[in-house]
Design goal:
The structure is a homodimer of 347-residue chains.
Chain A: H1 6-13, H2 17-25, H3 32-45, H4 51-58, E1 63-68, H5 77-93, E2 97-102, H6 106-120, E3 124-128, H7 135-142, E4 147-150, E5 167-170, H8 172-185, E6 191-195, H9 201-216, E7 225-227, H10 232-244, E8 249-252, H11 255-268, E9 277-280, H12 284-289, E10 292-295, H13 298-314, E11 325-328, E12 331-333
Parallel strand pairs in A: 1-2, 1-3, 3-4, 4-5, 5-11, 6-7, 6-8, 8-9, 9-10
Antiparallel strand pairs in A: 10-12
The first copy, chain A, binds a DNA duplex (16 and 16 nucleotides) through helix 2 and helix 4.
Amino acid sequence: MAKATLVSLAESLGVSRQTISNVINAPHRVKPETRLRVEHAIAESGYRPSAAARQLRTRRSMNLGIRLMPVVDGINGSILDRFLHALTEAAQEDSYRLTLFSAATDDDEVRQYEELLNVSDLDGFVLTGTHHGDQRTAWLLENEIPFASFGRPWSDTEDPFSSLHPWVDVDGGAGTQQATGLLLDQGHTAIGFIGWPAGSGAGDDRRDGWRRALQAAGVFADQLDVAVNDGVPAGARAAESLIAAGATAVVCASDSLALGALSAFRSQHRAPATPNVIGFDDTPVAAAVGLSSIAQPIEEAARDIIRVLTHTLSGDADAGRPDKHLLLPPTLAQRVPHPLAGNGWLG
Amino acid sequence: MAKATLVSLAESLGVSRQTISNVINAPHRVKPETRLRVEHAIAESGYRPSAAARQLRTRRSMNLGIRLMPVVDGINGSILDRFLHALTEAAQEDSYRLTLFSAATDDDEVRQYEELLNVSDLDGFVLTGTHHGDQRTAWLLENEIPFASFGRPWSDTEDPFSSLHPWVDVDGGAGTQQATGLLLDQGHTAIGFIGWPAGSGAGDDRRDGWRRALQAAGVFADQLDVAVNDGVPAGARAAESLIAAGATAVVCASDSLALGALSAFRSQHRAPATPNVIGFDDTPVAAAVGLSSIAQPIEEAARDIIRVLTHTLSGDADAGRPDKHLLLPPTLAQRVPHPLAGNGWLG
DNA sequence: TTGTAGGCGTTATCAG
DNA sequence: CTGATAACGCCTACAA
């Protein structure tokens, strides 16, 4: 049996194809009696509207695009996995699909936008890795393309909450502030921070949280702030210098850095009773070695991104509209050094 | 200026739209002279054929589907990241896109196939996580849907190389065999294996490699084979029992297990001069702690999968056809315990 | 509430 | 080698 279409269904039911289309797209406009009959026939025949035909007519593909960023250190790949998965599921629930593409640079990404919009009729995009002076958001705004980003628009002058485009982000600063507070509660006063060079929005944000906590406690010390490029060895070196400067604990901008710091601390003296290194992102590595880490609610962020994006696409009135700007609080995954190895995993 | 279409181009050039279509899809059928003229006009106007219209006519979407498996322990998420990325890039080079979907079970995955084929005209699928008695491959074969899997068809009776569908896999057994050989060369004779319970194709394959190496060396000992569920603590416990049984080194089916084993070894006695624990997958965790690990050529596998799949889709003759079944050799990433921590990362 | 007509942009078929 | 004609399956008017 050939695949059912509007016409084939209409003929076999003795109604016009329009009626069937209405049953699907505007059920309220059809008399309940015939609607039921049609719905039954639809289920019976396994009829499914063709995406291509629909897309040709409506110029909408029900597809969202997302660029797969170049794989860097891989340690955060697991985050990407969780993010993509949650994104896909949330999109699927709203009848959207995710189309993947890759681009080497932001310029290239914009070129891909054009292509995907022109030929594939993508309905919108999910952006990640927003940064200072992002050309991508500028282009999308200018061309009035629906999109939402995971990450605030980082700007020195403008309030992200007054941004023109929807975004969802995690409040990294609140996370490091909380982590620092915890270390303060445990009696530490010389608490260092190992982060990235100034300029990356997320990195600066995390550093600020650490600084705020120390300033509030009146123990802020400028020299306990180290900026290095991400990586385990860099974290270890940075921690060594901090230890030399008197630090008894550190908060880090990533788990990679924290892992290095942890090794530096453990090789210097006996493991303290309480964990004194806190990482960021709560990667599996952290879980594996018993490293406390600031955890991003990544699944929730993904769902929110899809929600705000699909809302934009549905063109509903602003009433009942989800928040356009969402700053989610992270949580602190507290761990003690892995119990299996007696005096701790790295001890 | 409105977007260029076949008709708009045809009118402005004084040719029929069919000629333009031919220039794009069958250039050889057009007189070089007019072809050049048309090509110029195409570039000029920035004309791009509409995917929807094309799809409606040809019933092909130039889209490949891939299911995002449920996130499990996350430690392998980084592998997925690399795999997806390579897949996307390779597909893109052949003008294909990747469409993501998620499914809770294999049954659900098959249901999604139907949907994606019927409504979205997906051209083919990439499968991962093949296993014994896989219903998905059976369904796809029966319905003659093009697909390729990352992972052999695991069967007790049939030779995977005579399988009906294309697949690409990594020869895990060769990897563990090589790793075991290395440990033998280093003087170890009591080499244990920590793997998963029998039944998972990949796990059994890895165990076999270890066994082969030991048997060839005449030092195979049944009691040094431990099967547990994946995880760091489980790996540590398993290693402890192996140590008690006299093992001086172990090969593991995953980095999680290896990480646990490493901690068990290090807490028992001084770190040996040579690494004596070898993991599998070469995850960032392994790199971070200086754990030797068997590395899968995941990017190459992804490219091969796309190659064989797109070849199938292009319907070319078998001449010049890429190998339908590809077993790639892994490599051994040899590492010494991280130098930063003096006597080793976990020591 | 239902039916009719037209068109979205492309490719296939078949003449010329 | 080129051009006319007819689908592909759906949606949006507008008319009944």
